[in-house]
Amino acid sequence: MIKNTSYTYLFALMLFSACSGFLDEKPNKNILVPESVSEYEALIDNYDQINLTPVLPFVYADDYYTLASNWQRFMPWQQNAYLWSDDPYLPDESPLDYFLMYRKIFNANIILDKVNTAPEWSVDDLNRLKGKALFWRAHAYYELAVLHLPIPESGFDESDYFIPLVTDAELGSTKENANAGEIFSMILGDLENSLSLLPEIPEYASQPSKYAGYALLARINLYLGKYENAREYAEQVLAGPFTLMDYGMLDSTSSYPFNLFNSETVLFTNMASQGTVSNDNIAFITADLMGSFDSLDLRLPLYTFSNDFGTVSFRGSYTGDYSVFTGIGLDEVYLILAESNVRLGNEEEGLGNLVSLLEKRYSGQIPILLGEEVLLETVLSERRKSLLFRGQRWADLKRFSYWDNQYYILKRSLEEEEILFESKPENFQLKIAQRELAFMK
Questions:
Q1: Under 8 Å between Cβ of 132 and 193
Q2: Could you tell me the pTM of the whole model?
Q3: Where in this chain does the record put each SusD-like N-terminal domain (predicted)?
Q4: pLDDT band at residue 9, thresholds of 50, 70 and 90?
């Protein structure tokens, strides 16, 4: 169903992080280079590489907790991240999240380098490949920016924070280090340029479409505090072939109530599988979060189940199985619309956006209080519940601290020790792993 590729050069790339800095590695002369349109298409449609997102935002966020006995089974960087270290990797550890995103960028740059040579391919082929490559390069850089960079134009001093900006497929070439403003300028430019090139309806939801481009732009503009832009892009998505599921029609007795590529899936991505951090016998939902759901809320019985050992686990992923859906669903689009409208002072429109979603999520009267500040709180509360285990909570906590001066004290307990994290802007920029720092200018 999903295209894959087994080119030798892709396996060679997997080895780069084991020997030195990924971005400093010289290309192997024996690496095979694709030639045909179908080979390049297979490279950018390679689901097992392209549709992955980092694990660190999930580990750092407060969607879950685990027990000390489970924490002991984590890899060292996961243990450190669970304790909110801003430098989780040991000196000899490979930063796998970092590698996964730059591999995606590298694959996209292979496509863009080829397209720029003006091969004798059809215009449709060239446009389609370029659109996909621009989309996924932007997607990867956004994930990196959420982890390592401040939010630009927020007033926070971003002068000490950089990540490598890679715009070609020559792994051994000189890389420029770019700040948050430069990275987001590229992200937005790539996405906007991709819109006219992407198909309206892709073959699979794992491939980007024009609507996925609008949805990702809506997500990113919300993060950037550009609510007018976020609203406009989100509205474009509503014209697409997506429909909200009526949660009242779903089977809460099913092991996994939601189907893969369901009617709400605008773009499918999932969190990379890195150990056991999100397994249902590892990651548990707190009583406080459980208590935030109303008794008439249909999400809770579909999202959760009780384990035999007295904890509550998550099962409501739009992947249709145990893996964590990090893509963009239509529910998130409605929440972006509602939040943007309320923040812009359009309370009636924002309320309408929220009600359109919650009508499909509640079995009775929807509990909504009016008034701009109260309505915003309601929107954000519903966002918290709808996007549970979606990989978006860390970015939300970060933007709340930047734009709203809203700070939380997150708490975790481990072996009778309480660990605290204060969600201030300066605490959200993770350090680049030590083994990669040597290869940055």
A1: no
A2: 0.93
A3: 22-222
A4: very low
